[in-house]
UniProtKB/TrEMBL annotation:
<dbReference type="InterPro" id="IPR036188">
    <property type="entry name" value="FAD/NAD-bd_sf"/>
</dbReference>
<dbReference type="InterPro" id="IPR024000">
    <property type="entry name" value="CHP04046_FMN-dependent"/>
</dbReference>
<keyword id="KW-0560">Oxidoreductase</keyword>
<dbReference type="InterPro" id="IPR050982">
    <property type="entry name" value="Auxin_biosynth/cation_transpt"/>
</dbReference>
<dbReference type="Pfam" id="PF13738">
    <property type="entry name" value="Pyr_redox_3"/>
</dbReference>
<protein>
    <submittedName>
        <fullName>MSMEG_0569 family flavin-dependent oxidoreductase</fullName>
    </submittedName>
</protein>
Length: 415
């Protein structure tokens, strides 16, 4: 044993909503533990979201353990400041053993059993370790970005705050997932000329037949569907989230409507060479596929309404408001007046600091409901860890209760 090594039954790595939820259950079960958080409990909501960010799921789905949403607008969408207040309120509700500004640099197996964890230079020994640091660690930016003319300002979506931080001129947004589509709208509302590289992200309507689509899907028990029962099985974890927004009460994000109103739409970005952007010829396919996903969701709601005999207003099928002309012309950044690029193409997980045999050949962690083959080693808060809500406010409590049961060896009820 290393000299001055400290012992504790459970270490949680990550003090976000997942790690805090784990702590809540361990506190309730009187299990001694500690949370190591490299920054602060609310840092991702404060430091990695744009100013006009808001939830895309209704407030009633915010169900952290012992801390459900109690505001006046359960069917609304909390904005950035309200989200931060909600998370801080959760922290204050039970005073977790949280060490902020404490980065974990290494997790290895301990020769006495359990795990050795090094945090801010201190050495700890724990029988159980819960990795709750998320999956969004390293921002993805393509290698060719470094060859783009230095006069073009570049940043990743996690660093975007508002239009005023960008130089005057047009903006190229790369990626049409949740962040990309919402940032396009944010820029468009500030009267910026925007070009969007449209990828394969699906879309969903905000409201359908008189209700938020989320309400319908909840009634249909979609959010109780486990990854084991999902048609894609583990492949569900690799699917891009549907784009939609909760801004100003919530509405659809229709990329075709953006195009009709002046946003330049292009296919998937293939490369940028000599300051000219080249695209795959997939714009029509990507738009059509996104619309098909939305239509399929509506059809499933229609079937549920009919099956249950529910009275609900009928809506006409969606009709595209804009169609691409089939051209796939390259885009000269300088000629188009593009002075900024925002990369909205996601993140890669970074688990290089974990030396425990819980990863597959693709360096992805392997678990079943967060439990790995390494005794006492767990993951929490990842997308589709167990259900759709596993990486969100709506489902992390259930997952944390389950893992608390694995640690304590008894059934732990969900708060």
């Amino acid at each position: 044993m290393t000299q001055n090594e400290k012992n504790i039954p459970v270490i949680i790595v990550g003090g976000g909503q997942a790690g805090l939820s784990m702590s809540w259950y361990l506190c309730r079960e009187n299990v001694e533990h500690i949370i190591f958080e490299a920054k602060t409990a609310c840092h991702s909501w404060d430091d990695e979201r744009w100013d006009n960010f808001c939830l895309v799921t209704p407030n009633w789905q915010c169900e952290l353990p012992g801390h459900p949403y109690k505001g006046k607008d359960p069917h609304g969408f909390m904005v950035k400041e309200e989200i931060i207040e909600y998370v801080k309120g959760f922290v204050n509700s039970f005073n977790p053993p949280l060490r902020e500004h404490t980065a974990v640099s290494s997790v290895t197996r301990h020769e006495k059993g359990g795990y050795r964890v090094i945090a801010n230079g201190e050495v700890w020994h724990a029988e159980h370790v819960v990795i709750a640091s998320g999956a969004y660690h390293d921002a993805v930016v393509p290698g060719y970005a470094s060859a783009i003319d230095s006069s073009v300002f570049q940043l990743h979506s996690q660093d975007y705050r508002n239009a005023s931080q960008l130089p005057e001129g047009a903006v190229l947004v790369v990626g049409s997932g949740q962040s990309g589509a919402q940032i396009v709208e944010d820029l468009f509302l500030e009267n910026r000329k925007v070009h969007l590289c449209v990828g394969s992200a699906p879309r969903v309507s905000r409201f359908y037949r008189g209700r938020d689509v989320v309400d319908w899907l909840a009634d249909m028990q979609f959010y109780d569907l486990t990854v084991d029962n999902h048609p894609l099985r583990d492949g569900a974890r690799d699917k891009t989230n549907h784009y939609v927004t909760g801004r100003n009460g919530g509405h659809d994000l229709d990329l075709r409507l953006f195009a009709k109103e002046g946003v330049g739409l292009h296919g998937t970005l293939e490369t940028i060479r000599d300051d000219v952007a080249y695209f795959l010829p997939d714009l029509k396919v990507n738009l059509d596929d996104a619309d098909k996903t939305n239509a399929d969701i509506k059809k499933s709601i229609d079937a549920y309404i009919a099956r249950e005999g529910i009275e609900a207003p009928v809506e006409a099928p969606y009709e595209p408001v804009w169609l691409p002309d089939g051209r796939n012309a390259p885009l000269d950044l300088m000629a188009a007046g593009i002075t900024s690029i925002i990369w909205c193409i996601g993140f890669r997980p970074n688990y290089r600091w974990i030396d425990v045999p819980v990863f597959n050949g693709g360096n992805k962690p392997v678990w079943r409901r967060g439990v790995t083959d390494a005794p006492g080693f767990y993951f929490l808060g990842l997308p589709w860890l167990h259900t759709w809500g596993s990486g969100r406010f709506s489902g992390v409590s259930r997952d944390a209760a389950w893992l608390a049961g694995q640690i304590t060896g008894k059934d732990v009820s969900v708060a």
